[in-house]
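Folds abound. A case:
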Amino acid sequence: MRETPQILERDCNFAPYASTRREALAALTPREHEVELFHEQVRRAPVDDAPDLAAFSFVSGFARGAYDLADRHRALGVPVVGGGPHVTYWQEEAPEHFDALGGESRVVLG
């Protein structure tokens, strides 16, 4: 039986936005780095100072939540990278929330 995705802070039931950007970046990341993927509509990402880097890829409908998570990570000293369609098209507002911008996955972590 297929489990219905948990929709966080929403009053409707719809399928999560499907994207492979995260998986592609994880596959390009050198093996000596541990990568953990989160999708906020399925499983809430933890906010702590454990990661060496936090990267976000998102569409405009999720910008407010992504900015909040990025700001919370930065407050703990974790560098954050922003990318995805929203960052690509709204480049004037994103820099205040991220240490680096990747747009449509233009940054390859190495």
About this structure: Residues 55-110 form one domain.
